[in-house]
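Thread: quick sanity check before group meeting

JM: Hey all, I'm pulling together slides for Thursday and realized we never actually wrote out the predicted structure for the chain we discussed last week. Dropping the sequence here so it's in one place. If anyone has concerns about the input, flag it before I start.
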Amino acid sequence: MSHINKSFLWLIAGLVLILGGCTHLKSVHQVETCNDFSEWPLLEQKVAQRILLHGLDHEALYTLATDLKPMSTIHDFSYHTDSLQAAIPQLTLWANIGAKLSCNGKKVVLMPFKNEFDGRKYLELLALDIKRVQKEIRRHPLFWAKLGITETTPVELVPLLVESAAKYDRWRGFGYLFGYPDYAVDFFVQAGQEQDSTKQFVKRDFFQIPVFAADKGHFTYAMPKGHTPDATDSTRYIAAKNILGRYRLQRMKHLRPANDNASQLLSILQKNGN
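JM (edit): ok, ran it. Output follows.
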């Protein structure tokens, strides 16, 4: 019973972070306010634009501007649990940013991780493409049902439920959500199980898909050592390269050092289908 209570409290805490604190917003569903931070205080506008641009320059481009990845990290942050009062304004701002960006078929949620490290609480601002997440759930209905998830589950709850799952289910769930191919998800889970059993590291290679910020180290997944990339991998790679090429052109056209309006850039990308 105590385990159920803890899980329930964890879920409620996550919902509060996702849904609460939207002090600047009249209605997060109004089309005219989509991606628009212009009515916020100047300092908060700058922070929001910086966070969004970081996401677009990394793998969140493939979720916010397109549907290549069901889910991506926009940005992350942490705070010391001894300074909770000081963390509230930051939590509120990040939740507000998520509410502003939750439109045009996207949902942006602030997800806290269960575990703390060195007295710090870690969170990520996650972008989800609603239809792509639902498609992933339809592809593996038995796995998702194990976590109490169906395609009708509110999409903002899905990463929270995955985060609270048992270790190997958590790995598999996030693998699917982050858009990795099935064989790579299977390998990562099986390699982890083998390593836990034998205490020996399972060698692996990595498939790297470029983002604006770097060619390696961001949209990346593990694959068996010596695995030859196949059509599954090349399809993702080619699609990402095409998206990234268009993003480079739009970024150069619409962003200037004195006017880094990432929200306007995102609206243009979404309107034009990137």
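AS: nice. The chain has a mean pLDDT of 89. Residues 36 and 155 are 22 Å apart (CA to CA).
JM: adding both to the slides.
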